[in-house]
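Design a sequence for this backbone.
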């Protein structure tokens, strides 16, 4: 995920010293996180961003068809404090990159109960990370791509590796069903780069919200495959957004280790006056009406970007 084409983000390890322009300043943090979709405007002062509360929310406690048994149940207790956190800044080589990026998720999302949920690369092994129940930069409500009786496989934020060292694609992991609460999402976003269309698809039909937009140039392409909405924010200091929200995705740049001095390169949907053709660092640039529609979607909403 990347502070996409235009966003840039500041490493959590450098928060104490860096001024960031697209992040919510949260009490208790000594620094802030800069999600910068455009390098064009460098904020002169630390702003106070506004968190957008989506008007659409998941329906609690989804009731899907019975899931296959799959892997055996695991009721072991684990020391979550000893595990690395699966968040936007994480590099987790233990977790696999999505092996089926063209498929749509199941229509469910999950959120950890309690302090967090242990994340497994393999349900027969030990956990390799923890998914927090809450995180200031989002990414804690995640879409299910496979459901079993005792386990779910989900998409996650973070990267297996940076582009210069390995595969930076969309991460996946397994969670125990006992550690999460389920909800239904009735929408997904489908993007076609070749057709220049963006649709919000629901069971009753789809709504086309764009017939043209801007996307990444050859050297910094927009990542394709499935991901999800990580967080939605307004950053007044980014003049090119004209005060419209930025909708950040869970997937980062396929070519940039970081952006704007940060060690993450997050992809986002955002407004820009220049918004047609291959023009960005990887983000998708849209008009105000389309951004408004996307900003209404709840966190965890699946996004499928096709070439």
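Sequence:
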């Amino acid at each position: 995920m990347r502070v996409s084409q235009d966003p840039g983000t500041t490493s959590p390890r450098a928060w104490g010293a860096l001024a960031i322009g697209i992040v919510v300043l949260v009490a208790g943090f000594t620094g802030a996180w800069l999600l910068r979709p455009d390098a064009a405007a460098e904020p002169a002062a630390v702003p106070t961003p506004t968190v957008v509360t989506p008007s659409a929310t998941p329906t609690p406690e989804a009731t899907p068809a019975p899931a296959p048994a799959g892997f055996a149940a695991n009721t072991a207790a684990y020391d979550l404090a000893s595990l690395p956190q699966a968040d936007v800044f994480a590099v987790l080589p233990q977790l696999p990159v999505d092996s089926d990026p063209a498929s749509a998720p199941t229509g469910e999302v999950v959120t950890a109960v309690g302090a967090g949920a242990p994340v497994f690369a393999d349900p027969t092994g030990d956990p390799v990370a923890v998914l927090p129940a809450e995180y200031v930069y989002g990414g804690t409500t995640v879409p299910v791509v496979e459901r079993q009786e005792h386990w779910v496989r989900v998409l996650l934020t973070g990267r297996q590796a940076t582009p210069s060292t390995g595969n930076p694609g969309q991460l996946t992991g397994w969670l125990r069903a006992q550690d999460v609460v389920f909800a239904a999402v009735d929408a997904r976003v489908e993007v076609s780069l070749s057709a220049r269309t963006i649709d919000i698809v629901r069971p009753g039909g789809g709504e086309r919200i764009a017939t043209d937009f801007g996307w990444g140039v050859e050297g910094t392409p927009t990542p394709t495959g499935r991901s999800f909405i990580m967080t939605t924010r307004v950053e007044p200091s980014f003049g090119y957004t004209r005060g419209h929200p930025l909708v950040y995705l869970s997937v980062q740049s396929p070519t940039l280790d970081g952006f704007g001095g940060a060690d993450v390169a997050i992809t986002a949907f955002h407004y820009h006056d220049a918004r047609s053709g291959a023009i960005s660092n990887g983000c998708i640039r849209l008009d105000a009406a389309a951004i408004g529609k996307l900003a209404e979607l709840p966190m965890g909403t699946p996004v499928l970007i096709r070439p």
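The chain has a mean pLDDT of 84.
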